Predict the 3D structure of the following.
Amino acid sequence: MFYFGVDYYPEHWPEERWPIDAKLMSEAGFNVVRLAEFAWSMMEPVKGSFTFDWLDRAISILQAYDIKVVLGTPTASPPPWLMGKSPDLFRVREDGMRVTYGNRREYCPNQPLYHEYTRRIVTKMAEHYADHPAVIGWQIDNEFGERCYCPVCAQKFQTWVRSRYEDLSELNQKWGTIFWSHVYNDWAEIPLPLTTGASPNPGLALDFYRFCSDSYVAYQQLQINILRAKCPGHFITHDLMGFGYDRLNYFDLARNLDLVALNSYPRNQWAMEECTSPSQLALSHATMRGLKRQNFWMMEQQAGPGGWEIISVTPRPGEMRLWAYQSIAHGADAIVFFRWRTARYGTEQYWHGLLDHDAHPGRRYEEIKRMGVEIKKVGGQIVGSQVKSPVAMVLSYDSRFAFQIQPNNPDFSYPDHFHQVYRSFYQQHISVDITAPNADLSAYKLVIAPALHLLTEAGAENLKRYVQAGGILVVTQRTGVKDETNAVVHQRLPGLLAEVCGVEVEEYDSLSSSMQNALEFVLPDFAGKASPSVGVLCDILKPTNATVVARYTREFYAGKPAITLNQYGEGQAVYIGAVGDGQLYDVLAGWLLERSGLQPVLAVPEGIEVTERWQGERRLLFVLNHMEQQQKIELDMSYTNLLDGKTLIGEVQIEPQGVLILTAT
Ligand code: GLA
């Protein structure tokens, strides 16, 4: 079943309204709602007194329309009676300040008292709904994140490092605490990397970031254990924030979930000027799909202007439908819109739902209702079908954390660099999987590991094995600089990858924003290609075995290699030594695809996106027009558009924001 639905907060509205809501939902084609993830004070109004009758009534109204329910555990928004129990329950920020009550996510994920109350509410909910025929799954908490620097975390962190290092002398040696006399004689001396301590020891800071991520993973596990035991028939998920969120290791967070869910707001109050680009959205989809290498749910897809204090640009006609189909095209097996009706009060008064405050079913409702008709028709043919990608990109949360601690250059952003490279493949309609550094890469023709700054021995071995067996590996500047403990390696860079890349970094340069260099391609494959400009971080390369692909043309390293290609085992390794702009990666992506024998799924004009999903041997081709103008494409064979049943062949027009889902006729 393809689930199509909405996030619903019946507790915000009078009960008389609920049947009207359910009817309108059903008319929109909705067959699922997510409920209750912020309703702790409604389910446990005072300590130990649990009331689910209101929720039971809401669910049975929905059930009458055959609408299934995903329940949220309400731990993201604890009630005042609970947070009033102790100031220690509150998270402490990086600057040492405790957060205060009044928004949400105020809690420390390591607080035993918070765990105790979490266990109670989750157990009660799970027991109450285990056998409810309308309930199909659980969302744990809501958008985990934010590091806590409280004394409980400090103590837990000390225990955490203790389990990671054999003894203090190993820790002292690995963190290099001899520097500035930080040598610890007692585990209890190990501090937290608060901003008040200025720039911390990178080894300590990275371990703390890992610990914070592990803390949420453990807190989630506490809830998973209860739900699995009590509700074996239900799935368990958590709603994640896509590629952009950078405080948690999402691979770890996803590991014990049954499925990954994504929240997506392309137009929001923090980016009034522009809508999140289609390639950024696609990267988030690919990341969510990559976490468990399986399809994901869209748990919150924007359904109106987003905003807390201000109101964002409203989704243009056709945009919400296009966003939804884009996530389906990349592996979403369910679309749930956020939220049903815009709240009249609270911080999210202006975070609009499908209905405005007045509940009038307007333009946005009508658009999604039309989509509901389509989903009824095509959902069953799509659900469970697979995205098969010939290319993978390695996402390293360790490297990401390491760059948060030391960006290397003020203009360098690991996620932006990652996206920039991803975008070049996206534009050529090549599907890319996002994988962890230690994942099995054997299925991919091409693997790109952008700025894989921190490299473990196992990670390096994995990449080596991949190349040895015939794969094409691409790495970029500042790769292999750090070891597992965030110390700089003692080998020539790129450290553990020097041999496979057939290259050494002779010297590196970090450029100011007004400085630039440029490249000149020397391989004949690039004949006629313009010289791309580069900057930010430039590795000056010295091949030990590699062939030079491009050289620098400026500065004292003019003429020195910037990009190299090495034959290693049955495969090849490409080192891109400098940060470029889109033009550089476009040219390189074209070249790499040719070397890997990969071709775009379909040749289409700019602004059109094409992806495939496979239902066994049956190919579903998604064609999406991200432009505001009608566009013309040329089909390579005869297809049926599943959305309207029409046969299409040859030249075809796609409406602005139009979508085609094609199968061979
Ligand atoms: C997030 C949350 C939702 C809501 C929206 C809009 O994605 O999960 O509860 O707050 O943002 O702000």
About this structure: Residues 202-230 form the longest helix (29 residues). The mean pLDDT is 97.
